[in-house]
Each structure stands twice: as C-alpha cells, then as structure tokens.
Amino acid sequence: MNGATLSDLLLLIPELILVGMALALILVARRIRKTSVAVVGTVLAALAAALASVWALPDGATTGFGGMITLDGYSQFFKVLIAATLAMAALLSVKTIDGETVPRGEYHALLLLAATGMMLAASALDLLMLYLALELMTLCSYTLVGATVKSPLANEGAIKYFLLASFASALFLYGISLTYGVTGSTDFVAIASALSEQGFGANPLLLVGVGLVTAGIAFKIAAVPFHVWAPDAYQGASAPVAAFLAAGSKAAGLAALGRVTLVAFGSQAEVLAVFLAGLAALSLIVGSLVLLAQTDMKRLLAYSSISHAGYALLGLIGGTAEGTSATMTYAFFYVFMTLGTFGVVIALGERGEKLEGYQGLASQRPAIAALMLLFLLSLTGIPPTAGFAAKFVVILSAVRAGYTGLAVLAVACSVVSAFIYMRVVVLMYMREPQEPAPSRFPVAISAALALAALVTLIGGISPGTVVVWAISP
Amino acid sequence: MNEYIGIAVMFVLAGGIAGAMVILASTLGKKNPTPEKLAPFECGKDPFSLPMGKLAIKFYLTAILFILFDVELVFLYPWAVVYRQLGLLGLTEMGVFLGILMVGFVYAWDNGALEWK
Amino acid sequence: MTLTATTFLPLAGAVLILVVGREQLARWIALATTVATLAVSAPLYVNFDKASSALQFVETRDWIPSWNITYGMGVDGISLPFIFLSSLLSVLCIGASWSAVQTRVREFYAALLIAETAMIGLFAASNLFLFYIFWELMIVPLFLLIGGWGGPGRVYAAVKFLLFTLAGSVLMLVGMVALYHTFGTLDFRALAAAEPSLEPRQQAWLFAAFLAAFAVKVPMFPVHTWLPDAHTEAPTAGSVILAGILLKMGAYGFLRVSLPILPAAVQIFVWPMLVVSAVAIVWGAYVTLVQTDVKRLIAFSSVSHMGFVTLGIFTLNQSAVEGAVLQMINHGIISAALFLSVGMIYERTHTREIKDYGGLAKSAPVYCTLLALFCLAAAGFPGLNSFVGEFLIVSGAFKTHVWLGIMAVWGVALGTTYVVWLFYRMVMGELNPGLEGLKLELNAREVATLAPLALLALCLGLYPELILSYLHAPVAQLLAGVTP
Q1: Which of A7, A454, B5, C53 has a Cα at 20 to 30 A from C167?
Q2: Contacts with C158 from chain A: Cβ below 8 Å
Q3: Is residue B45 part of a domain?
C-alpha cells in the first residue's frame, strides 16, 4: 500500500499495549504464582489502552496504513468500551482461574489478545483488516471457551463454536471476495464510491457479497439465524469467559457492522434495511421466546444476549448517523448490564449457575439480590436504568426509519422476556431459601459489580453523559 | 481452445470407464455379505489393534510448530525482496513480527514442547 | 424546587432506610419522611392560583440536551389534588403497616417510599418522558410489595400485575416515541399546541397505543382481570396504594395525554369508550354482588367505580369531567379507607371470607362506626363525598344519551346494594363463633389512621367546592381543546 509511515504505528498504540502485556504474560507464564499478578497486569494494560486511545492523538480522524486503520471518535468510543470489558472480565475471573484447571498467564494473555482483535475491528476501514481483527478475536475465544479442559461441556461448546465460526468465516471471506470482484477494492471508502455509482443493479453477485459479509458479522453478534453457537458456547465456557464473549464479541461485532453498513454499503441502505430488519425481528422473536424455557443461567443469558442483538440492530436499519449512534449507545449500556448480570452469577459460584439457585437470595444476601434486581430491570428496559435509555433510543431509530411495526414487535418481545427476568426476581424475593448462604466473594468481583451498577444507574438517570460520546463514523 | 479438446476427451473417457466399472459392479453384481467377508484382511489372523497403532501426540505438536515457523519464513521472503523500498518502517514492522514469534518460540521452549521423550 | 423536593424526599428516605440497619428505626424514618413530604408540599396548596389554568410551580432544567428532553415539573388544578392524595395515603399506609409487617421490614418501607416518589412524580411531571419514567417506575415497588408481603396467591397476582401493566406501558412507549419523532418535543403544553398538524388517522393510532396503557391501569372492562388478584393478594398498604392512586393514574393519563394531544381521536373513540365504561359499571357491580371474599368485593367495586370515572371523562362536558376528577379523589379516599379497615380486621382474624364475619357491632363499636361511614360513602349517600361526584357524572351521562344515564343510575343502585349487604353481613347480627375471644376493637394508632379519611369524606361531601374550585379553570381549558 502507499504512504504507510512509521507514525502510523501511533494509531495502534492501544492495541500494541495490549499485545505487549499479552506477550509479557506469556513469557513469564510459568513463574506467576498468584492469580492477582496476572489480573493486575491485565487491568493495568486495559486502563493504559483506554487512556491511550483517548489521548494518543489530537482531535480529528486520522487514517493510517494506506487507509486501513483509523482512529476517529467512533473507534475511540469502542476502544474505551472494549478496554472496560477486558478489565471487568479480568476482575471477574479471579475465582475461576485458580491455576489448577486453567493456567493463569495464558488465560489472561488470551483475554488481552482477543481484546486486541476487538479493538482492531472497531478501527478497521478495510474488509480484509476487519476479517483479520475478527478472526483474531474469534481464535482466542475458541481457546477461552475450552479453557476449562476437564469439563465435557466446555469441550463440546468449544468444538461447536469452532466449527460454526469457521464456517461463518468462510462465508465472510467469500462475501469479501465477491465484493472485491465487483467493486474492485476491499477498502470501505472505495467500495462506497463504487456502489454509489453502480448500485446493486450492475451485478447481482454484489448483493450476494454484501449479504454474506453482513451474515458473517451477524454471526459474531449472535443474531438469528446465525446464533446457534451462542447458547452452547456460553453454557460450556466458564462464567467469566461467557461474560467476556457476551459483552466484548457483541460490542466488536456491532462496531464492525456499524461501520460496514454506514460507510461501505451506506448508499444501498434501503436494500440492507430489509435484511437488517429481518435479522432484528428474528433475533427478537427467537431470543425472547426460547428464553422462556431456560433454567441454566448462562444459557438464559445467552438467549438474552441474542435478543439484545436484535434491539441493537434496530438502530442500524435506518442507515443514518443517528441510528448508528443509537446502536453505539445500546452497545455501551448493554455491555455493562450484561457484565453486571454475569458478575452476580459468578459471585454466587455454583449456586448462581442454575435458576433455582436464586431462591430466597434476598433474605440471605440483600445487597447482591438488589444488584441482580437492578441488572434484571435494566435488561427488561424499565426506567430509570440504562437499559431503558438504550431501548428508548433504538425504538426511536426504528420509528424514524419508518419501521413502526418492528418497534411494536420489539417492545412486545421485551414484555415476553420480562416474564423470565422477573421470574428470577420472584425467586429471589418471594421464595424461601433452599440452600445455605453463598460465601464471601473476592474484592475484585465486588469492584467489577460496583462499576457495572454505577454505569447502569447513571445511564438511566443521565444518559446524556454517554450519548454525547457516541459519534457516528 | 482446440489444444484442450484432447485432454477433455481423455478426461471423459477415463472417468466414464472407471465410473462405469464401479457403477455396473455395484448395481449388477451379486451381493452376499457375511461377517467374515467384511472383516479387514490381516493375513488370516483376527486384527488385534488399529493398523496404525496409537499415534504419539508429539507428532501433532511438532507439525504445528513447523507450520508456524515455516509460514513465518514464507513471509520473510517477499519482505526481503522489497526491503529497500520499505525502509525503516519495513525493518521495524518485520522486527515486531519476528519478536512476537520469538516470544512464542520461547514459550514453546520453556513449556517443553521441543522435548522428545 | 417545591415539586422536586416533594417528589424526591421519599426516595431519599428510602435510601436512608436501606442504609440504616435497624428495623424499628426504619418505621420511624418512613413515618417521618412521609409526614415531611406532606409538610414540604404545603406551599403548593396554599399558594396555588385557582383562577389560572396554566402550569404553576414550574421547574425546568436541561436533562438530555442531545435528545431535546428536559426535566420539567409543573402542576395545574387537576394534578394538585392527586399529589395531596398520594402524600396523605402514604402516611396512612405507613401507619397501617406498623404492626402488620414483621418480615424484611426495611425493604417493605423502602419499596413504599419509592412508590410514593413515583406517584407524586407522575402527577407533577410536565413532559411525557418524565411521565413515562414515573409510570414504569411505579410497577417495580408494587410488584415487590404484592409478591413479597402479600397473601397466599401473591406470586401469581404479582406476576400478572407486572405483565399486564408492562404490556400496556411498552405500547405507550412506542406511542411516545412516535410523538417525539413527529414533533421533536415531549412537553405536554407544546404537544397540545402542536396537535393540529396530526391527521386523525395518525391520532387514532396514537390514541390506541396510549389507550393500551391507560385502559390496563384504570382498569377498563376487558383488561381489568389483573385487578382482583392484585388487590386481594396485596398487603394492606399495597392495596391502598393500588386502589387509591394507581387506578387514578390511568384516568389521569386520559386527561393529561389523550384529551389534549389527540382530540380528533377522542371524537372517533368517544362512543366505544362510553359504552365500555357503562358496561364496566353495571357488569362490575353485578360481579361484586356475588363475591365471598371481602377484599375481592372491594376490588371489583373499584372496577365499577372507575367505570363511572371514565364515563364522566368521555361525556366531555364540563360538570361531568369535574365530577369524574372529584370522583377519582373520592374513590381514592373511600377505597383506601375500606382497604385499611379490612386490613385492620384481617390482622386480628386472619380471614377474608365474609362468612367468617358477623356481629362485629357489639365487640368493636368504633370500628363499625367508621366502617359504616365508609360504606355509606361508597354507596353514594348524600352528605358524603361520593354523592356529589356520582351526581355530576350521572347528570353528564344523561345529557349525552339516556341509556348511559340509566346504566349509570343502575350502577349506583347496585353499588348501594352490595355495600349495604356487605355491611349487614359483617356487622349486624350475632357474633360469629369463630371470632370469640378476639380483641376486635381498634387501637389508637388505627383510629388515627382512619380518622383523616373519615374527616375528608365528610368535608368533601358537605363542601365539594373544596376540590372542585381547583378544577374549573383547567377542565374548561381542556375541554375547549377537545370539543369541535
């Protein structure tokens, strides 16, 4: 490519920090005696990356590496979000990573490398760069899902995830090659100009290519009908890994999809809208309905994340900058409320992984039950939580795009899913406890829960603080 | 186009004859399978282990490491060819690339992947 | 600042209760907070200008500038009586639950206080976004109250309540978003001023969306099925808040949202609404007659009484609408009083079946006197508050159509019947053998809880202008926008 200079490396400082810490952890993996060392390292790297992405460069978009990477407001927003996800996932892992079943250094190195892939995906301005980033994220995720080697569920989840994700990547690559074939480039800007001249009428293969690219990314965010991997992978993985996947993979996928639909394929928004609306509607319906039958908490949260992918997609249907901002806002609040819910699941240990384990929690541990209540209210979308603010803004985008029926479907699905979210509340507050009170959990988990609760509350009372930062590409 | 006609005819003939043999044999031939006829042939004795035996997992590990460092080498060749045009950036980037792979090598070495026991 | 202080003081009290450890202290903090809320809201009633129909005590602050949403509070003559009713009923609820609630006391009072914040906030909100937030916020503490401290069927009742009200509210969300998309603002006055640009078809759809939420809350005839379970299974305080305030929120929604902003749709929907209201009055009264559980009886009577309210609102004439608002206040007072009384006797006898009662007159004279007062008030006895409200509504109904008036009067007659019959079965005759040896008379705290309501029932019955004077100006302005 032309014009790549040494200063382009400055654009990648956040990713380089994460990779550097990952390599350091790999080198000293056998010498780490306590989990806290790895956790502290990861959290520090995440903080440094977040700061670097906000302050490394002066304002204004800067593109580098021949137009493949950019560091504009959009990517900064997602980099900060992903750094927060990484830090919280590391904090939540302290109980699970006891060094015996899951090696400490390697686990955190994988988390860091997956986060690198996610951050790159938010900055990518080229389809191949996007593929690279998403593959980096997914490869590390396969290993993370299967990290608890002794558990047969983990092995099953990892294999299923691997096979389905490889297939999806193949489809994605095929879509890229078809798009390249018709438009002559894989760069978003070049594709956009080629599309605005020709449109889909020039070559029907282009429609197939665009559809496959969108489908490949839809797999990463677990939208129906590309969601089949999610419940098994989340259930098989250990809870912190499931949390990281649910939050980070979705944020990265939405970041990628936002840029692809708005920048690369923006001129064909009406055609894409139909496809995205279909994805959203299916995700909402399947996610909410199948949610009703779940009794394993991680599987429940997997279906919940599938339905939330549907809500987030509502913002992208209009193909406008405000819609993409709405999706960004939704991704932000969704990450924190999901990490919070998973955090409660992790804090309760084995008891937290099945639905009946929540019986009578309010009389035994009122604080944790109250936190779970807050996160469940946010997942349902009841004010004054961040989940309501997020829902408001995506429903607004759907109505603005003219898809009012879809908006009604979305709110109807939220009532359906309310039934099961409130079932957890019923179990916690309205039933007698069957099991002994859960033991104390480490400070790290409390810190992560506190951060998630803070964002959920502040997002509900004053969403403007986040919305201002959600700048479309 | 004319040059390829010969090959195409050859392809069709060969495929056709082989395919015909297989299809005719499987459809027209008499079938009378017995357990003895279907067992794998082992010079008259009953087979007591898999033909290959158990495969040492070390082969897999060595193969994976070989692939990784071989692909690294493959990247080095085109880089070497355009080295002058790339300048300092090229050197730095390749240095970072090799460095990352060196870390992986040290990790493999440290964790006994290069041992053969 | 008065409105914000009144709204959020209970929330501060709730946080204080959750932070402070001890249970007995929680009760006193709750009582102090609710009394303080009443006190803080006093300037609202003293300094209110009854002649003006504009919003008063207005507070606006920028909240979410990027969405053009402001934090706006303001009251007019219609909302002010409800704020008073909410604050008063909250104090009485705390008093009634003093000895009744023994488990997880802190959470109970915290939930009550959060519910009070939501109630007052809803009536004080001057834009639709804030209105919606308080509307939905109300659902959670009540869900917890019913499900956590209620009777045997409480979980079913709580979940049913939650799902019904949530289903209605989310449709209101879509309606609200559609309004926002069309006009770019959610302030009530701005929307009312801009409404002429909405076509009747669009207005009809929006009306339907808001109707879903308000009809479930009121509750109107087909979607009322959550009410008997919720009211019966809720603890006393929960029933009081449900019957006293929550039902009024639905009707208030009609007055605040549907009538000013969607007048063309109101004209389209007026006859279906009138018919459904009339059906609710009569059908609700008949169902009430056959109930054997006291609380369920009072719950069904609420369906019938709220039918009067919606009938009054949709006749769209000045005196009937004023009567409807007055009736909302009256019903709030009366049903709260009835639920409180039932709760007090239930604490002693632990049964809600009417057949387990009888002959309370000799053992509990004070209780029976108060109960008689409230029963007569519910029946619409002249001199007590309900009479005026029902009279105004019935006269408005007759003006609209003779048959509506006939059904309304029939509803009044049935209302008298079931209430008097209930009183007869519970109070007259010989003491039921199952109640021997129980100390049935009220103690001082309970009399103090019921006394304000009795006093209000008398005052409003003798001098209804006390409330009506607030209503003349705003109702006139409201109807000026609706009637073509």
Answers
A1: A454
A2: 426, 430
A3: no
The structure tokens listed for A324 are: 């993409």
A30:B104 CB<8 A: no
The phi, psi pair for B114, rounded to 5°, reads -95, 0
pLDDT tens readout for residues A357-379: 899 888 888 889 999 999 999 99
CA C306 to chain CA centroid, Å, is 9
Q: Is A222 left (phi over 0), alpha (psi -120 to 50) or beta?
A: left
How many angstroms separate the Cα of C413 from the Cα of each of A251, A269, C335, C373, C406?
A: 63, 63, 18, 18, 11
Q: How far is B88 from chain A (nearest CA, A)?
A: 8
Q: What are the two backbone dihedrals, phi and then psi, of residue B88, each rounded to the nearest 5 degrees?
A: -65, -40
Residues A416 and A423: their CA atoms lie apart, in Å, by 12
Q: Which of A5, A19, A29 sits opposite B107 (nearest CB)?
A: A29
Domain membership of residue B43 (yes or no) is no
Q: How far apart are CA C448 and CA C462, in angstroms?
A: 22
Tokens of C441: 């008379």
How far is it, in rounded angstroms, from Cα C284 to Cα C307? 8
What ipTM was predicted for this assembly? 0.91
Print the domain residue range for B58.
Answer: 51-117
Cα–Cα dist C178/A402, whole Å:
10
CB-based contact A382 C178, cutoff 8 Å: no
Q: Is residue B27 part of a domain?
A: no
Q: Are C265 and C200 within 8 A, CB to CB?
A: yes
Contact call for residues C9 and C91 (beta carbons, < 8 A):
no
- Which helix (H) or strand (E) segment is C61 a member of? strand C56-64
The pTM of the full predicted model, rounded to 2 decimals, is 0.90
Give CA–CA dist A265/A74, Å, rounded. Answer: 17
Structure tokens at C60: 């606006």
Pick among B102, B107, B110, B111 to test the A interface (most A CBs inside 10 A): B107
Nearest-angstrom CA–CA distance, A144 and A244: 10
Going by C-alpha positions, the residue among A242, A244, A248, A356 that lies closest to residue A301 is: A242
Q: Is B93 helix (H, G, I), strand (E, B) or coil?
A: helix
The domains of chain C are located at 2-482
Instruction: Give phi and psi for C252, each to the nearest 5.
Output: -60, -35
pLDDT digits (tens, 9 = 90+) for A306-357: 999 999 999 999 888 889 999 999 999 999 999 999 999 999 988 888 888 8
Average pLDDT over residues C277-292: 92
The Cα–Cα gap between A264 and A220 comes to 19
In a domain, B102, yes or no: yes
For the record, the structure tokens of C180 come out as 């926002």
Structure tokens at A363: 């009389």
pLDDT class of B33 with cuts at 50, 70, 90: confident
The CATH number assigned to the domain holding B111 equals: 1.20.58.1610
Q: What's the structural domain count of chain B? A: 1
Q: What is the pLDDT of residue C100?
A: 84
Nearest partner of C188 among C125, C137, C116, judged by Cα: C125
A244-281 per-residue burial string, b: 16 or more CB within 10 A, e: under 16 = bbbbbbbbbbbbbbbbbbbbbbbbbbebbbebbbbbbb
Q: Are strands C69-75 and C56-64 parallel, antiparallel or unpaired?
A: antiparallel
The minimal CB distance from A430 to the residues C132, C155, C174 is found for C155
How far apart are the C-alpha atoms of A326 and C423, rounded to whole Å?
58
Domain boundaries, chain A: 6-467
The token duo for C198 is 């909405």
Helix, strand, coil percent values for chain B (each to nearest 5): 70, 0, 30
Place of tokens 């395919």: B19
